[in-house]
Every structure is written in C-alpha cells, then in structure tokens.
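Milestone 3.1: sequence recovery, worked example.
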C-alpha cells in the first residue's frame, strides 16, 4: 500500500493561488498578507480514485448539435427569486448564496424547496449545521411540505456525494459549504483546500447529472464569501442576501449570473411565517414618509429592469466640532462629499462649516448616479429649511460643473412615479426631450440642464 505523503502548501485566501513557500504578496492577485499555510496529505490510492471518478463516456459535440430551449428552466413561483436567478432555475447550474448570519438564507432556500415540491420536483436538502428536528421546526412555520422534499444531515463529502447519486434529485441545497469535510484533504473544515475540494465535487455532480445545486456560504466581516475567491469563479451564479437582521426587509442581489442579468434584485419581508415577497418595493419604501418636512425628497433609481422610488432624507446644520461631520446611510459617502463641493462652488452655498447627514429611508443601499439630483435637492431643502412639494419625483446625474446629465430608462422611471400618484417630475432636459407625447400625459415635467435651474423651480 502506498504511503501517504505529507506536504505543506500555502494558499492565497483571495484568489486561490498555490505556492510551496510563504510570500508576503500573492503573485496571482497582488494582494498582501493573504497566504495561509495548510498541510496536505495525498496518496496514490486516493489519486487513482479521483481519476476514476473524473472519467466520462461522453464525447465532444459540435456547437450546432447542442439544443437550448427556454423551457429548460423551471420556476420556483417566487417571482422575486426567479427574477434574480434570470427567469428561473437552470438544471445543471451551481448557485452560491451568501449573507450575514441570521439574515434568513436557510429560510429562503427552505421556502424554495417547498415551492418546488408543490410542483412535484424532487428536492434534497443537505444540512451540515442543523439537526433534522431544527429543520423541521423552521419548516412548520413555513407550511406543509410534500414527500418530494428529503432531508439529510451529513458533513462527510463522500457520504453527501453518495446520497446525491442514489436519490437523483432535481434540486440540491447544501447548507453550508464551510461544513463539508473530505478525508482526502487533511485540513479542517472551512479551510481553503476543503472548500475548493467540496465545490469541485458539487460542480462535477451538477454538470454531469443536470442537477441544480444551491450552496450556502458564510461571509466575512468585509461582506464577502468566506474561503478562496476562486469559489465565486467556479459557480454559475452568486447571490447575496442583504439587510439588517433587526429590520423586516431583506434584499436578494445578484453579483454574478451566467443565465441572466447581474443587476436584478428581489425584495422580501421577514415575518413569523417566513419570507414574504414585496412585489411593489416603491410603495413599501415610501410608507410612513413625512409630509411638508424639509430635507425630504423622492428619487427614482433603477435596479436592473426595475424602477424603484425611494425617499432621500438630508439634514444640514451648524457644526459644533472643529471638523464638520459627514455621515451617509445607504449611499456612497465620497459621492455625497463631491456633490456638496459642487454646491459650494457652483451655487455659492457655504456648506464647509456645516454638519451633513444623508439617509436612504427604508434601509436600501443604492449607488446609481441618477440619485445625484435627489441628494442635491434634499441637501438644499434642509439647508434653506424649505420643504419640496410632496408629489414630486426627482432623478438625474450631476457633474462637477453643476450640469444635470441624462440617465437611462427615463420612461420606466416616469411610469413608476405615475403609478404611485406623483404629479410632478424633475428630470434632465435631455431625457425630457426623448419622452413620447403619451408618456408626458397626466404629469407636469420640468427638464433641467443644471442644478441652478432645479433649485429655482423647486425652492423659491
């Protein structure tokens, strides 16, 4: 019998680069202090076993012989979830779902399993973190499950692989990838080697058997999935489940998707019976908006193909500190500083010694440049202590010279505002000229080319 060989290898936690010695800077991704030491034990028997598993009887095919039909995808009937996935679940797809602890990743995927089982899809839910009774407790709150959903609590990778091969399900959920352990790799569960080995096994199973596999991944304090960065490159889709676990809303965001757009988001509300879809996020985000308050503006942002109205709140006041405070919630801090500099230079507003706070109500986090004009008007409204008309929606990008630039999908933004009862729209002049006559009906429009024109129209 071949004797196991023990070697020490250094892996980059960021990109997965492998080296026989430690280096301060990774040659692959050029990041500093990301190399970690791991002991790897390999044997000839294990290598032969892996080689045998990787063999396949398939043959190369021509591109024209490969058939691709839209009905290949199947739906979860959770519209928000299907939208983020790109229209449904693709058989053979490997999906990574990341998020903070307690945010609701397991609840979301368990609800997905319930919806799929209602459509007679065979589902295998594999948990390495919870017992069968713990999963049952959560399932009781969600609703009745059919016999097509099977549970399996196991952390041994070989045992998990055997269960998938024997059950032949259509959808598999792995909760979580950091708990999977392979005996052929002598490092601890959750290490770079273990995560990479487990992901490779699930990738092979998904592609060879046509199974859709969902992998739950924990995140680090920086908000990225724990483990090697190569994990995100191996999977087909990367989803992040975001939000404050002390608040009711949750946002499912796609950051990589080989089967659809990477700009789509799904909005959910956490209730005692589980996650409930929020099909009209604009109405949800504007709920409780104050009337006649200065510093409050409604702006329209686009998330993928979805327009979303959101309240921007600003508070500008005299500073009691030697260095004025600047604080933002839900938007880019540096972008707000830049817009305040534009106001000071182009409109001669003395904001240098003022504290400024900007908040996107509802806990949303949006970075679209179309919010610039809304942020500017909220800051000016608070600075002058003059409210803006309540049924006014604002959008547009602001440049360094104070000009208001056009944004994409203006007609979709206008339609969303009209649907929620807004009667006035402040928008870039270039976008106003491109609107069709029927799109202008029923609302009052102001096309502005610079910030000074917007201020003159709204705050007199």
């Amino acid at each position: 019998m071949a004797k196991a060989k023990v070697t020490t290898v250094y892996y980059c936690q960021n990109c997965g680069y492998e080296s026989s010695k430690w280096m301060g800077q990774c040659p692959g991704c050029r990041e500093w202090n990301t190399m970690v030491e791991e002991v790897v034990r390999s044997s000839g028997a294990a290598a032969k076993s892996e080689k045998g598993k990787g063999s396949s009887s398939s043959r190369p095919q021509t591109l024209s012989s490969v058939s691709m039909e839209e009905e290949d995808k199947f739906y979860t009937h959770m519209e928000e979830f299907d939208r983020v996935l790109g229209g449904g679940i693709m058989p053979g797809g490997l999906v990574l779902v990341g998020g903070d602890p307690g945010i609701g990743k397991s609840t979301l995927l368990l609800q997905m399993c319930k919806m799929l089982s209602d459509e007679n899809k065979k589902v295998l839910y594999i948990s390495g973190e919870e017992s069968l009774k713990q999963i049952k407790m959560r399932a009781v709150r969600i609703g009745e499950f059919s016999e097509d959903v099977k549970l399996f609590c196991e952390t041994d990778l070989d045992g998990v692989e055997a269960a998938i091969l024997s059950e032949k399900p259509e959808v598999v959920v792995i909760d979580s990838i950091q708990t999977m352990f392979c005996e052929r790799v002598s490092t601890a569960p959750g290490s770079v080697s273990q995560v990479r080995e487990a992901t490779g096994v699930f990738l092979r199973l998904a592609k060879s058997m046509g199974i859709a596999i969902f992998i739950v991944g924990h995140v680090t304090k920086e908000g990225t999935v724990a483990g090697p960065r190569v994990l995100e490159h191996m999977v087909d889709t990367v989803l992040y489940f975001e939000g404050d676990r002390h608040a009711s809303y949750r946002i499912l965001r796609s950051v990589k998707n080989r089967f659809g757009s990477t700009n789509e988001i799904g909005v959910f509300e956490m209730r005692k019976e589980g996650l409930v879809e929020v099909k009209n996020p604009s109405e949800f985000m504007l709920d409780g908006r104050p009337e006649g308050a200065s510093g409050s503006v409604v702006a329209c942002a686009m998330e993928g193909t979805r327009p979303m109205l959101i309240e921007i709140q600003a508070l500008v006041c005299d500073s009691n500190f030697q260095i004025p405070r600047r604080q933002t919630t839900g938007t880019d801090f540096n972008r707000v500083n830049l817009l305040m500099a534009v106001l000071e230079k182009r409109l001669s507003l003395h904001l240098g010694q003022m504290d400024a706070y900007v908040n996107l109500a509802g806990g949303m986090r949006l970075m679209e440049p179309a919010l610039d004009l809304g942020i500017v008007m909220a800051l000016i409204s608070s600075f002058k202590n003059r409210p803006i008309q309540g049924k006014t929606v604002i959008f547009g990008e602001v440049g360094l010279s104070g000009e208001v630039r056009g944004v994409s999908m203006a007609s979709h933004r206008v339609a969303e505002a009209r649907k929620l009862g807004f009667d006035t729209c402040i928008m870039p002049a270039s976008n106003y000229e491109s609107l069709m006559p029927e799109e202008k009906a029923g609302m009052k429009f102001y096309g502005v080319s610079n910030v000074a024109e917007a201020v003159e129209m709204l705050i007199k």
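Residues 43-56 have pLDDT under 50 and may be disordered. The chain has 13 helices and 21 strands.
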